[in-house]
Design goal:
Structural class of chain A: alpha+beta
Largest sheet of chain B: 7 strands, mixed
Number of domains of chain A: 3
Number of strands of chain A: 18
Largest interface: A-B, 53 and 64 residues
Distance between the termini of chain B: 17 Å
Shape of chain B: globular
CATH superfamily of the largest domain in chain B: Succinyl-CoA synthetase domains
Helix content of chain B: 25-40%
Number of helices of chain A: 13
Number of domains of chain B: 2
CATH architecture of the largest domain in chain A: 3-Layer(aba) Sandwich
CATH class of the largest domain in chain A: Alpha Beta
CATH architecture of the largest domain in chain B: 3-Layer(aba) Sandwich
Largest sheet of chain A: 6 strands, antiparallel
Number of strands of chain B: 13
Oligomer: heterodimer
Amino acid sequence: MKLHEYQAKAVFSDAGIPTPDSRLATTVDEAVAAGNDIGYPVVVKAQVHVGGRGKAGGIEVTTDEAELHEAADSILGMDLKGYHVDRVLVEAAVDFVDELYLGVTMDRNEGDPVAMVSSEGGVDIETVAEETPAAIAREGVDPAFGIHPYQARKAVYDAGIGGDVARDVSSVLATLYDLWVDSDASEAEINPLMLTEEGDVAAADAVMNIDDDALFRQPDLAEMEEASYTDDLERKAGEYGFDYVRLSGNVGIIGNGAGLVMATLDLVDHYGGAPANFLDIGGGAKAERVANALDMVFADENVDSVLFNIFGGITRGDEVARGINEALSQFDELPIPVVVRLAGTNADEGMELLTTELVHVERTLENAVQRAVDNAEGKA
Amino acid sequence: MSVLVDADTRVIVQGITGGEGTFHAKGMIEYGTNVVAGAVPGNGGQEVAGVPVYDTVHEAVRREDADASVVFVPPALAADALFEALDTSLDLVVAVTEGIPTQDMAKVTRRLSETETHLVGPNCPGVITPDEAKLGILPGDIFSSGPVGLVSRSGTLTYQVVDNLSNRGVGQTTAIGIGGDPIIGTSFIDALELFEADEETEAVAMCGEIGGEDEEQAAKYIASEMDTPVAAFIAGRTAPPGKRMGHAGAIVSGSGTGTAKSKIDALNNAGVPVGDTPEEIADHIEDVL
């Protein structure tokens, strides 16, 4: 779960990390009032869950009321990489002498948390990581102990940050780590942490993503969730509780188990087709879930062909077949051709049960994928 | 021979009184697994699926001389259950539970590194040695005994590849589902080490997927340490960056790490053939047998 910048800043600020004065605004009038209250210059920032907001035109610096009016007017309501902007953060522009990067995340390879510092803040940190990895100081942390103060200092000094400000930056990093732990975050980032002429620090941007699996014990953060979807189908999938990713092709895919569904997508591509989506209905596959899954792919106007690939483990083929029949019983004729492949537990019983006037049944994965790709090309 | 489990493995089930725990404990017993006890706090003295239940894992291990545990404890309590299991002398702990917070798993795997125990999972289908024992939720009847070791991050993809193998009469020594989470106990390398040391495993089928660098590290290990031939399949070639493909661990990061291409290239460079389809991994396995 991703927090918006304004939410993450509130969390950071509560923990004692300095952030610039800011207000959230949903209208141009609110934005202007906020700017007048804070004092110019102010930055206007779109509050949407996308990276690279600045380059996409979602962030503007304004020096007076007229400029702020114009910026807020253009950003509010804009489409930013597919996301509708309905709120902006109006924030005091910080007069900085340097920009740093601070981050805490889980290092998958080590299985440990890692605290990171770079003197090259203010730019896309993934680019820095790729082009000049040495510019990012990394300090692995024992999750049982938490970060020792010396580790925060070491990361800061290793990043080439010295002088009086090093102590403040170390303190912000240690606080960020504790916040990361206390919030069950997967990522917590400040990019940039601005250094001012006066020697102060301020978190000019804030990123915080929470581990979905830990939301049960983070009720305050869970309440902040504002699901944002680039399209209605992803919203629908969220409501149905499916793992769903929309893609650009025309072969709709439904399967059970993430790895098998990914492999099915790959096979569609291998046989010359283009997958329209990733949809994992998970274990069980009761009639209602099957019906919801079909509803999802039928609702995608790009889909010309549907492939149902179920490998029954604990899921039984006959149950799935009943689910498919029940889901399809509302149709006399299907809007688009459906290929079903059942394997594993009780697959034979399932294939016998399927209403074959409506669906085409295949026994092997390869044949099923080929058939679905042919259907999509209108060959069948 | 086999790895991790065989007919003699004495198994306890943590969370045996829950719906899933009871269902799968019965399934394991039906398969022939030597399930000797359950462990559920507050439920000591009961009998479930024909085996005694103890309040603590320690008591279950001590009274029943258990070697392994399968964990069906719900995610909020799972880390505690794993710490409890790791505090005993068990050789193997299989964590089936899906949805354990990642930070909990970081603490668990730190503790794991101080023990001699193998942890498989979490969020995994389990471990099976065909005709001897299964620990987890795998459908036993698609497996058959034979010379191929199998290790996979995904449940149903494992079944698919086993099906491709079994249809040609190629059986398995042991199949290990290592799970689709970002932080897991047994890695590909750990599983490959076990198969390399096993005399009956003549070839290894490895099913990876996008996300992380476990497959790339495995490729290095295969190139430098393994004599047993390996064939692989990598799922997620068509996955777009930044989108989580079901498994919490299956994501190509924005900077392009964890891609299928990087994994396939690493494996090819290590001399490992990578099938374009699950059928092709079975072709490669048959070629080397």
